[in-house]
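Bumping with the actual sequence this time:
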Amino acid sequence: MKLKGILLEKNIYKNGSYIYDFLSTENNLISFKAKGTDKTTSANKYTLFFLNIIEGEFIKKGNKYLFLNGKVILDSNFYYDSYYGLIFLNAVKELIYKIMEKQDWYKISRNLVFIQLINSRNTSKPIVYIYSLVYLSLLILQTEGLDFFIFLKSQNLDDLLYKKFKDPHDLKNVEINTNELKEVLKNINTFIEENFNSKINSFDLFLEHL
């Protein structure tokens, strides 16, 4: 069977095999086993990377999947070309692993794929990465049942600025200055820290270099 989707977590299994978490475009979260993908001779050595969008060929046995081969539809290599891109990758990992319940990952699959497409087309505009993170943060918080906008009202903060990030189709067109971006990231991180006793360290890196 063939599936398209986006790659997330990778864990060592045994005997040179790995278990990967994969969000399919059909909005399913599956885990699959892949053998020897870290070997230099593996045809899939550069296929299975975090946030790569791939089309894979799988064998399904019961509720278990084995990855046979695949091709990359959109790789995440462009993030490694800039400091902001690297911070983005780390921030996405933090957002997903620190905030979301694993069983809820599938709820963001299509949005995460769409964000990848936006970012890949705007690699010369690192500010788009920050727009993407704000949108993804608000989406994840909403998915986990937390209303960020109620928090803003309780702090007497204006929520008009944040409403610019409600639609991912508008991310690349949002007009916002550096000080406004800093306000957004700080407030989201404060909210996350209050609710999860943890903060997104990569947001602090953005703040240091904005």
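The tokens above came from a reply further down the thread. Residues 58 and 67 are 5 Å apart (CA to CA).
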